Amino acid sequence: MNALQKQVTNTFFQTLEDLKTKENFEIFLNDFLTEKESDSLTKRLATAYWIKKGRDDENIKTNLKATQKEIIEAKAKLDSKGYKLAIKLMEAEEWANVWG
Question: What's the CA gap between 52 and 45, in Å, rounded?
Fold first, then answer.
């Protein structure tokens, strides 16, 4: 990555950090992602979360309309830092909703 690419990437991540609220993230993402991109990201996250929760492939295919390829890719990424972080946050939110 050259210096300009690094600067642009850092600015992008800083912008995401500065959004801070769910409302601001929604505004930003609704303007910057196509509906297809948004659907793809949310399905990817939901698929990984449901795999972690022990749902079987057929359940995920039926309910999330995920393909076998998407399920395999999510399974392969479950141990990556980003997926672990996202699932941890989702589990914390789930716990807070149950006990909050």
Answer: 11
Half-sphere exposure of 86 (CA within 13 A, CB side): 18
Q: Which residues contact 51 (CB under 8 A, 6 or more apart)?
A: 60, 71, 74, 75, 78
Distance (Å, rounded) from C-alpha 30 to C-alpha 43? 16
| CA neighbor of 48 nearest in space, from 35, 39, 57 | 57
Using one digit for the tens of pLDDT, what is the confidence trace for 30-85?
999 999 999 999 999 999 999 999 999 999 999 999 999 999 999 999 999 999 99
- What pTM did the predictor assign? 0.83
